[in-house]
Input
Amino acid sequence: MAEAIEVKDLTKRYTSSLKKGWFRREKIIVKALKKISFNVKYGEVFGLLGPNGAGKTTTVKILATLLLPDGGSAKVAGYDVVEFSSIVRNNIGVTLTVEKGFFWKLTGRENLKYFGMLMGIRGDKLNRRVNELLNILGLERLGVSDKFYEEYSLGMKARLSLARALLKDPPILILDEPTLGLDPPSARAMRELLIKLAKEDGKAILLTTHNMFEAEMICDRVAIIDEGRIISLGKVDELKRMVARRVIIDIVASGTPIGIDAIKDRISEMIDGNVGLSMDDKGRLRIRILSRAGSEESNLAEAIKILSNLSIRVNRVRLEEPTLEDVFIALTGKSGI
Ligand SMILES: Nc1ncnc2c1ncn2[C@@H]1O[C@H](COP(=O)(O)OP(=O)(O)OP(=O)(O)O)[C@@H](O)[C@H]1O
Ligand SMILES: [Mg+2]
Output
């Protein structure tokens, strides 16, 4: 079977203008996507992770056939998004962050029925599907299925968007920030639902997020996108292995023979990484070593040797896994998303 989504060297430029004074405008070209490539498989949750303006929504809109690319190619369900846009649309469910497509003066249920009819679902089948989705997305439990859309909160709107995306039970879901605006328990429920849709129903899910914690929790693979380029792609574990692990050494340092700056200098000289040292008011010394990938163990051994030569007793040693945030900082030099 073909991959669910195949993106190759995709580029997109926007023409925009900068206001320069009252009457003058300067035309500028924004290169939103600079040759990005990635694939998404059926049964997989794939995350596009990146800061504001990275190009996530642009990618989603091109894959959803809402925006034309300038170069490269994108296939969804095996079909080119430009040439076969209607077949692509038949195979996808899409949610966007800024939803304009619902009717404010219809209820959630009526909105779903309307869109279901447009998709060719009729009669009892439509009623059953709409009821099922109102239940799955928790709108029934919140008691808002028959409330007007204009009265919906951000989180209720996000749920209704996913319900609409699922109406036709499409094999591929393309979701722009699906948990934006959801409270923590609802976000958790939404994430569990997405995992189930991928693992049990075999759907391919492409989602965007700037939430590293979310990407770590639900994505099988992640592409980190920044300024229109994919700067790293792989399983979350693989990405983490590329960056340093922290070695944390907790010490009760009663009566250290030399000052903490001197201890820090001695350790710094011998290890491959950065050392941080602090002492709390109870005289507990904490040493943090941010090691380069692969040198954690030898760094730890060196540090322990130095401390034991100084007759400083070590209480506790911990190796901390890096987070996706560490990966992002290491790759981009930026302080976070
Ligand atoms: N219609 C447009 N006209 C001009 N520039 C645009 C347009 N839409 C997006 N851009 C620019 O393209 C770049 C990528 O935007 P995009 O919306 O894809 O980012 P994003 O990763 O979704 O960001 P966010 O996390 O804020 O949603 C940004 O520099 C943005 O300003
Ligand atoms: Mg966006």
